[in-house]
Structures are given as C-alpha cells and as structure tokens.
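Appendix B, example 12.
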Amino acid sequence: RWRSDKNLEFVGRADGQVKVRGFRVELGEVEAALRSTPGVRDAAVVADGEGETRRLLGYVLRKENEAEEVDTQQAQLKTWQELYDRLYQQASETGDDFNVVGWESSYTGEPLPAAEMRLWVDETVARLRELGPRRVLELGCGTGLLLTRLAAAGERYVGMDFSGEVLRHLRQYLDTRPDLRHVELRQGMAHELAFVEDASLDLVFLNSVAQYFPDADYLLKVIEQAVRVTKPGGHVFLGDVRSLPLLHAFHASVELYKAEADTTVEEVRRRIRQAERMEGELLVAPQLFEELVRRRPELGRVEMALKASAYDNELSRFRYDVTLKVGEKESAALPDGWVSWDAAGQWRQRLARELAANPSASVGVRGIRDRRVSAAVDAAHRLESAPAGMKASELSHACAAEGEWPDEVAALARRLGVPIHWQGFGPEGVYDAIFNPRWQPSEGDAAMPLTFYRRFTNTPAGSIGDIEFARGLREALRESLPDYMVPAVIQVLPAWPLTPNGKLDRKALPAPDFTPASAYRAPRTPEEEALCALFAEVLGLERVGINDNFFASGGHSLMATRLVSRVRSTLGVELPIRALFEAPTVADLSEWIDRPTHTDPFEMILPIRSSGDGPPLFCIHAVVGLSSAYSAFIPHINVRHPIYGVQARGLSQAAELPGSIAEMACEYLKQIRAVQPRGPYHLLGWSFGGLVAQAIASLAQQEGEEVRLLALLDALPASPDERPEDFEDEELRAAFAADPELSEMFDDAHRARIIEVTRNNLKLRRESEPTTYSGDALLFVAAREHDEATLADAWRPYIGGSIRTITIDCGHHDMLRRGPAAEMATVLGEELRRWPEGGGPAYSEELHGVTVAGRPAGAPERADAGD
C-alpha cells in the first residue's frame, strides 16, 4: 500500500502462505487435504495468533449422509435411554404419584423445589384438561406425574416411555390404584406408533420430552405420527419446549450464577461459548410450529403460551407450551385495536376500558417484557461489550429486571373473562398478547422438505457426532501431512459465514476455545493419561488437565453417560453415573477408581462421599446401626460438601456395646473429630439417629464446640412404653430394603451382630432421657405417620432454641428413599450454604413448607406463590 508520505507499507501476502513455528505453510494445501477426506463437503483453514503461539484452525462443512444421520439419531436416543435407565435403577420407589427424580436445577445442580414442581405439574394438568380429551396417548410418561392425574377421567390412556425401568416403577404404583387399572403402558421410542389406528385419539402429548430428541428431523417424525393418530378436532400438545431464541440468555444466566465473585467477564464468555457448543438438548424456535401449521394440510391451528403459574425457575423462564389443533386451517385475526405496554402499568386500565366498552372486542397489547427473563437478556447483552477484565459480580449487579410476570398477565385475562393468545417469541423476551382473540379461516402454503425446518432448531446429536468427526479428520491428516500442517483444532459448521457478496467471510469464522477451565496440570500416571484423553474426546477439547472439572468444561449428564461408556470400553472399569458427579476431575476420578473395593462397609465412620472443600455433613445411624442409606443424599447435596455416615460399634466384629446414649455420643464425637478436629459441626440423624445426633450436639456444646446444624429426620424422643420386640423385625426389614446392595454382603455372622446391635439400641432408646441442646433444630416430619405439632412438642423440652418443622409427604420408613431424600436435601443444601465462616443462621422463606432454592444472579425478588 502506497501511503500519503510516499512510503510503501507491507499489508500482507496476496497468496495463502503463512509461517507457523518457523515453517512456511500453504493454507490451500491443508484445505485441499481436508476436502479430499471422506465426508467433507468444503473446508477452510486460517492462521491464528502470533509468533510461537501461532497455530492453524480448520473449518469444514459435512456432506449430507442420510444413513449416518439415522445412526446418529439412534445413538443419541440410546444414550438418553441409558442415562434414564441408570437413573431409575438407582432411585427407590416413592410409593406415591409425585416422583420428581431427575428434576435438578441447572444453576445449583440440586433438585428443583418440590413446591415449584407441584405448581408446574398442576399448570400442565390444567391445560390438558381444558382440551377435554377422552382417549389419550402420552409420549414419555416417565414416573407418571401427569398420567396419574389425568388418566382416571378418560376412556383410554396409553403411557409410552423408552425406559423399561421407569415403566416397571410406574406399573407397581398403578397396581395400587384401582381407578387406573385401565392404563396401558408401552415401552418404545416416541415415533413408534404403528400400534395406534389413524384418527383414533383426542389428544397426543409429550411434556418436557422434546429436548431429548436428536434433531429437527426426528421432532417432525414424531409430530407426523402424532397427527396421524389424532382425529379432526383433536390436539397434539408439546409442553416445556426449550426456547432456541433464548439459548444465549439462558447460558449467560447460568454461568453468571455459577461464577465466583472475582471471575472475569472474559472467562464467563468462554464458559458460555463452551456450554452453547456442547448443548446436549434440543431447542426449538417457535417459528418451526408456525411454519409447520402453515404447510401441513392436516394441521389447523397453533397456539403457543408462556408458563403462567406463579413459580420462577428455569422451567418457567426459558420454556413454552405448544398446542397444535388437527382440522381446518385458521389463524388469529388482527385485533380490533392495540394498546402499548408501559412499565407504569397504565396499559392495564386502557385494556380494561376497551373491553368494558365492547366485551366482544379483540384487543392486543404490544411489547410486554417478560420479567422472568429480562435480567438474563440484559446480562447477555452486557456480556457482549463488557471489558474482558471486568468481574462477573459487577456485571451481575448491574443487570436489571423489569416487565410483567406472565402469571399476572394471565390472571388479568381471567379477571377480564377473556382468553389470551401470546405472539412474538424472540430473543429479547418481549411479547405481544391478544386478549379475546378471534380465529379466522386461512389458506395453507406449499409443503417444504425436512431441510427447511432445520434452521429452527439446534442439533444436539450432530454436535456430539461433529466432535467425533473432527477428531477423525485430525487423525487422517496426520497420516498425510507433517505435524506443523495439521490444524490445532477442526470445527464442523452448519454453513459458512458469508460477506454481502456471498463469499466466505474468513474474519467471521468462530474462534475456538483454547483457554482451559483451570491451570493445566499434566497427567502423572498412565491411568490419568487415559482419563485425560477420554475427557478431551467426549468434551471435544484439544487437551484436558487432571484438575479440569468435567462439568465446568461444558459437560452435562448426557455426556457423562457417554464418558462412563468410554471408560468401560477403554479401561474396563464400570462406573456408576454418580461417580462422575462425586469425582468430576481426572485426579478425583482416578482416585475414585483406585479406591479399594474391600473397604469394610461396617466401619464406624463410613465415607459416603469424602471429597469436597465445604463443611461435612455427619449422618448418624438409625436403630439397626447402619448408615449406608444416607447415600440417597449424594445426587442432591452439593458436591463441595463431604458426607459421612456414623455407624454403630460391633457391626464389623463382636464388641462390647454401649450402655447408654450418652456413652454412644461421647464415642461418636471422638470419631467425628478424627475427620473434622474442630467445629462448627453439621449433624443429622434419622429415627433413632436423631436421638444420638441431639446427644452429640449437646455434648459438643458442653465441650465448647459450635454446632451449626442439627437435623432430626422423623425422630421421636423415647417412650417408656416401647418394647424392643415390637420393633425389631420391622426396623430390620426397612434397613435391608433401604440398601439392597449392602444386604447382599450380609453373612450369618453379620446378621446376628446387626440383630444384637438393634436390640441394644432399642433398649437404650427406651431408657434414655435426652439432655438439653441449647441451639436450633430442623425437624423433618413424615406426614403420613406423624403429626407435625405433636413431634415438635415432644422435642421442645430438649431443644433450647427454635424448632423449624418441615413436612415430607411420606411414611417413616420412606424418609431415605430418593423422592423424600431429594426434598429434604433441598432444605439441607440451603442450610449448608447459609452458614459461611463467621456467619449466622438466616432461614429462607418457605413455600408450602419447603425451602425455595435461590434464584440466579440478577433475577428479581418477588412474592411467593402462597402470599
């Protein structure tokens, strides 16, 4: 370039030659090698970085291969099936119709509050009942949350699921319900509806299921089958569809919540890019359903709706419901007039006046901002332009929430006595709403091929397949090119970014993530080296260090299942899914694998989960002396908190048994101090274990230690009328049922010692008189057997502080089954987080007796649903 000062300035080479680590590389030569590889339609290669850090980046477009796409679909579905079979195998039957196993927060990893889940269920049931179905097919019936509330009123109800394990659990429950004996359960994939006659059903629905589909093609295949078996005038309902336009806002919200206060904005942006790239679930833009109704002759109308119940979590913020009506085509007519939304709320009065003046009028409100997602959308925008060194906490605090709660907008429509129709589902979380909509006949458009609809979804199966495809490309290039010409990373793109002239815009090619989630530490052993390679393979990363957290690096439960399978096939090690949640780094997982399998399950301190840097939770054994049943808390208590079971003396080998609960408390406190030498302590005990936990807390206080948490799980102080022989068989049966794996280890000698320990503990319980503990206590009550007030009154003479009672809808011996354990863990997790060093107790608000989990950073405060 000839500058105005008459000097020449070197801008760059006109050819594709670059210098990488001292070697001259012709980019076109690398691109040609990529294009010649089977499966590649087109390729581009660019150089990134300067000096010694310069490296090549490769980008490819894949050739379409229908057979490969079907294989990828099936592999994705099979992986989800394996995940849920494992999940339900590890879960215990709750014995009721509210089993919410697997419903966990993306923010905390802990179970979604049971009270919010009940509102979510009730809302969906109400919407389905409004459709008045008599003959119903539910695809993905799961544990029966909806089935058990809908099926009794119908003539026919078929529940399908791909998990044989969950259907086994559900059938056991249905056998206890005479009113549900007519329900048909079938195992199969959502598209396998050949057993259903054409136009024979009123309703086909799938709720919170579409996200497990591998791609748009499979979603359309399922909808096609659902429409075929639905009669004219019937409906196909898709509930809880994840919103593709709000994907970026969702991940921004989650990663800001997870970030430490001093995490930089640049690191948050990296985590968001990684999370979006590794998204394992299907998200759908609402435009897909609008186009589908316009172009499919069998479909007449589509209505999409925001979640309208008074709960605020990710299920309400980033999801929507879709109702497709089979029959004559119709669309929402333009309203008679429009009202503009305003933050001051004047739109409400204008709307009411319009409808009062003309009750039959249709009135639209433009630009309603959804308050539930506004802070997340604001955060996503601010992240785009925030300085790289800015702290995540600063950005979170700057995000503002504004707008309307959708449940309050829906409540306004009910007060006005009119239906509501939502429109405008875009990335800004701003909607139009038509009050009292009118429907008019409409014309359909020409049919379009499947490829037309792919633009409206992501492709989770493709993202996983693309990672493996890219890895194969690098291996193939190494056979034909020298190492310095092999790109450091290859990304598969759905299409090229183009300039206004329609040519490849190389500057717009996405930048890969080379920054590790933590400082890189190389593997130290062959086993760690193999695990690092497997982590990198599944995560699609160039390399993984032994301290890199699988989930912080973009992993999720679906990928965890794939990793477990790869570990099995590569190392010959069978891992439960929970092992990865318990040990999410290579270093931790290697230690987990090498842990001796001959650990005595009857030792006095049982390490249920020994990893974690937070305060440990000590769980005191029940009357039979075993603590292994507390493992039900593992999936639900945050991984930073170790969990230890305290077990009775005399289980492993014959020993003199304690003569009093006071003697037992003294011995157990010594055992606890061997793990945690000084307080503050966090103690928990179920049944008989509650008495011992209270005695330990009292003794620790007397010795000058602080007890920050005392949790009593359906524990009752002793009654002199109790006799050991009345309880022995029942308690033993309950213990064996709670942990069937452990029961397989019992030999006759162990069984005899367990019976001896049980009898002694029942004797100590009958003879004990608790000392007073001056602190507060959490009292969980099994509501099916005990009265909340009676149990609290029984403890008041022995608890000097306050007693906070929380009812759990279960029986006494069901307390440590997965469902009740998950409910209790929500409260326990809150309490563990609310006790930082130097802090004091700060109880959260309650919603129907269950603590509500914290909302994400930047999310607004609001009144609870019960207020």
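Residues 138 and 159 are 5 Å apart (CA to CA). The chain is about 35% helix and 15% strand.
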